[in-house]
Amino acid sequence: MEQSTDIGGRILLVDDEAAILRTFRYCLEDRGYSVATAASSAQAEAILQRQVFDLCFLDLRLGDESGLDVLQQMRGIAPWMRVVIVTAHSAVDTAVDAIQAGAADYLVKPCSPEQLRLAAAKQLEVRQMAARLEALEGEIRKRNDAIGSNSPAMMGVLETARQFADTDANILILGESGTGKGELAHAIHGWSRRSKKAFVTINCPSLSADLMESELFGHSRGAFTGATESTLGRVSQADGGTLFLDEIGDFPLALQPKLLRFIQDKEYERVGDPVTRRADVRILAATNLNLEEMVREGRFREDLLYRLNVITLTIPPLRERPEDVRDLAERFLAHFVKNYGRPARGFGAGATAALRTYRWPGNVRELRNVIERASIICPQAMIEVSHLGLGEQVASNAPRVGEALSLEELEKAHIAGVLAASETLEQAARILGIDASTLYRKRKQYGL
Ligand SMILES: Nc1ncnc2c1ncn2[C@@H]1O[C@H](COP(=O)(O)OP(=O)(O)OP(=O)(O)O)[C@@H](O)[C@H]1O
C-alpha cells in the first residue's frame, strides 16, 4: 500500500462516535494520509468550506439528520471529493441509495484497519486518475509531437525556450495565430521539472470578467446565482504545475489586478469565499496582439505585462521558416493517414512545390488542416497539388512569367520551386541545367 503517500491524500472522517473517529484516524494517519474529523454535518460543512479534501468517510447515521441530505450537501460543496459511506450491516440498503446519489463506495461496520486502508487507497487512486491522465496525455503529445525545427530563427526560439523551461520565470509567447504558441507552451511545460504535474489552459477571450474570475480562482456554492456547486478553479488545478493563459490580450481589464496579485504573491480567494489560499503555479501566456500598444491605449496593465514578459519568445510565421513546411507536412500526413486509414504516403513534386511557395496566412494550423483534408480526399499513394486545394492561391502567390519582376526575383522563385520539388541538390541542379556548385552559390545568395 505504498501508493498512499505518493498519490497524497487529504481525508475527512465524519461520524458521531468519537471512538470510531479515533480508530479510523489512527489507521489512516499511520499510512501517511492527512486526516481531519467532524462529529456532525455542521462541523463537516464548516471544515469543507475551509479545506480541500480528496476523500470522505461518511457515517450515514448522524443523529436525526438524513444521511442522504448530508451527502448531497457535501457533493455541493466539494464535488471532486470521493465519498465512501460507512454503514451498519442492517442499513446496507441506504448505502446502496447513497451510491445512486453519487457516493463512490460503502464500507460495512465493523471493518478491519486493512479494509479501511484499502478503501482509502482505492478511492484516492481514482481521485488522482484525471490529473494523471492529463499528465500522461501531455507526455504522449510531447513524444508524438516533439516540437522541432530546421529554421535558424525557430531553432533560436526553441533553444531559449529550453534554457528557461526549468526556471520558474514567466514566459510570454508572441506570434501570429496558428504559429504554434500553445504547442510551445506545452513543450516548455514538458521540459520543466513541473512536467509530471498538470498543464492547465485558460482561453481568455471566451470568458467575461465574472466568469473568468470563478474559472480562474474557483467559487463557493451560492457565491452567485447558478453557483449550485463549489469549484476548485484552474489555479488550484494547476498547483505545482503550469497555467497557460492563451490569448492573454483578451484578459478582462477589470480582473487584471487580481491576476497580478496572484502572480506576485501566489495568493488568491475563491469567489464568495474570504479564505485566502495559496498555489504554486508557473505562468505562461500567449498572444498575437501588441500588448505594448494596448498598454499605451490603457487596455492592458503595464505592471501585469512586466510580470508576464520576464522572458519573451516570438515564434516566426510559417512563411518565414519555409524549411519547416516539408517536415511538418510529412508528420501531419503520417498522423492523418493512420487515423483515417487512407492510402497517401507522400507528396508529388507539384504538391511539394506548392506547399513551399504558398504563404500560409493561417500558419501551422492552416498547414495541418490542408494536409488533413488532402489525406482524406487523396485516393492514391501520392498527394498531388489538386488535393491540397491551394491551386488559385499558390498560382497567385507564385510570380508569373511576363509579370513586372526583375530576372533575379523570377530566378529566385524558380530555383526555390525546383529545390522544393527535388530530392537532392544534384537533381535540382540537373533540372535547372547548372552545376551543383553554382546552385549552391545561388542558394546562399538568395537565402534559400
Ligand atoms: N511545431 C509543431 N508541431 C506540430 N504541430 C504543431 C506545431 N506548431 C503548431 N502545431 C499545430 O498547429 C495548430 C495550431 O497551433 P497552436 O494552437 O499552438 O497555435 P497558436 O499560435 O497558439 O494559435 P492561436 O493564436 O490561434 O491560439 C495546432 O493543431 C498544433 O497542434
In short:
50% of the residues lie in helices and 14% in strands.
What does this molecule look like?
Residues 10-124 form the Response regulatory domain. Residues 147-376 form the Sigma-54 factor interaction domain. InterPro entries: AAA+_ATPase (IPR003593), AAA_lid_NorR (IPR058031), CheY-like_superfamily (IPR011006), Homeodomain-like_sf (IPR009057), HTH_Fis (IPR002197), P-loop_NTPase (IPR027417), Sig_transdc_resp-reg_receiver (IPR001789), Sigma_54_int (IPR002078). The modification 4-aspartylphosphate is found at residue 59. This protein is α/β, with parallel strands linked by helices and 448 residues long. The protein has three domains: 3-128, Response regulator (Rossmann fold), CATH 3.40.50.2300; 145-316, Rossmann fold (3-Layer(aba) Sandwich), CATH 3.40.50.300; 320-446, Helicase, Ruva Protein, domain 3. The protein is built from 21 helices and 14 strands. The strands form four sheets. Strands 2-1-3-4-5 form a five-stranded parallel sheet, sandwiched between helices. A five-stranded parallel sheet has the order 7-8-11-6-12. Strands 9-10 form a two-stranded antiparallel sheet. Helix 3 packs parallel to helix 4 and helix 20 (425-432) packs across helix 21. The chain starts with a helix and ends with a helix. Mean pLDDT is 87; it is low at 1-7. Adenosine-5'-triphosphate is lined by residues 145, 147, 175, 177-183, 246, 286, 288, 328, 364-365, 368.
